[in-house]
Amino acid sequence: MIWVGWREQRTETIIAAGILVALALILLPTGLHMASAYHDEGLAACVRAHPAAACGDAVSSFVSRFERTSSLLAWLSLLPGLIGVLLAAPFIFQFENGTYRLDWTQSITPRRWIGVKLGLAVAGALVVSLALTVLVTWWRSPLVHLQGRMDNSVFDSEGTVVVGYTLFALGLALALGVVWRRAVPAVLVAFGAYVGARVLVDTWLRQRLTPPLETTWKLTGADLAGAEPAAFKHAWVISGWPSDATGHRVTPHFGACLAAPKGAKACIVEHGPAYMHAVYEPASRFWHMQAVETGLFGAAALALIAFAAWWARQRAA
Asked: Which of 45, 87, 168, 252 is the most exposed place for a label (fewest CB within 10 A)?
């Protein structure tokens, strides 16, 4: 049964593997070049507690050199959804064509048939998503040392969330497919729903999954040169505004500085003591936030896959 299931899943698995190979062919040469440049230019010294003054220009030059490929990787957040719905397609096709009935008459119980089919799909999704995570994490390593990994485009492709995204897309396609029994429309709608869910999480829900921290600090000459509280290093700053000492937004007198040609901070400091207030997630929360978001998508995936298995067994017999 496992061999037969693999044969039926083989085409989609090969396509998913081909996507990984194509991505590796792009990332491996640039990743090796970037790692070499990071080492040769001594950028490791720029991540220390007190980097040299010239580090700012060196880091900016390094980041801009690989900006095009880095921007391309931001679109990789679509890949888990694509792979998930792709691996769900064989299961849905059998319900669309009715060929599952033949399998169920060959001394194979429906429960075993459903278990093997869904098990192979889930296993394939896990392997591909883990390989994708390892590849992208390796490529981004120098940039993560310099910039952190709390930015949405980085957070979405490292850690454990990629596994959760892939399983969620798989479960969504399976649930729609067994009810609709139309593979192509179900896969397309599931992928669209996956994109919508990801946009919702990235733009609204993620900052509410864990309570963010807040801080208020006094503006000084150092702030005008770009210095910020140490807690902001590699952090995700969700929002910030000029404030008073208690963190409340500034009065209209200070608010007028927001449009000042020389910059808001310089204008505010010139008018007397002023402060900035920020809402942020520190870099130390990366794994905690990963676990929370992975749990959210993983729980949704488990519910959807369980529903697909139940519907297939109860309604398709």
From this structure: 252
Q: Where are the domains of the chain?
A: 2-203+286-315, 213-284
Residue with tokens 């399976």: 174
Crossing angle of helices 110-147 and 55-65, in 10° steps, is 140
Cβ atoms 143, 70 nearer than 8 A: yes
> Cα–Cα distance between 144 and 267 in angstroms, integer?
34
241, β-bridge pairs: 277
Give the Å distances, CA to CA, from 228 to 46, 60, 61, 232, 313: 16, 18, 21, 7, 58
pLDDT tens for the chain, 317 residues long, are: 555 555 667 888 899 999 999 999 999 999 999 999 999 988 988 887 667 767 888 888 999 999 888 888 888 889 999 999 999 999 999 888 877 776 666 767 888 888 989 999 999 999 999 999 999 999 999 999 999 999 988 999 999 999 999 999 999 999 999 999 999 999 999 999 999 999 999 999 999 999 999 999 887 655 554 457 888 889 999 998 888 888 888 764 555 666 666 666 666 666 655 788 999 999 999 999 999 999 999 999 999 999 999 999 886 65
| Exposed / middle / buried, residue 229 (Cβ in 10 Å: 0-12, 13-18, 19+) | middle
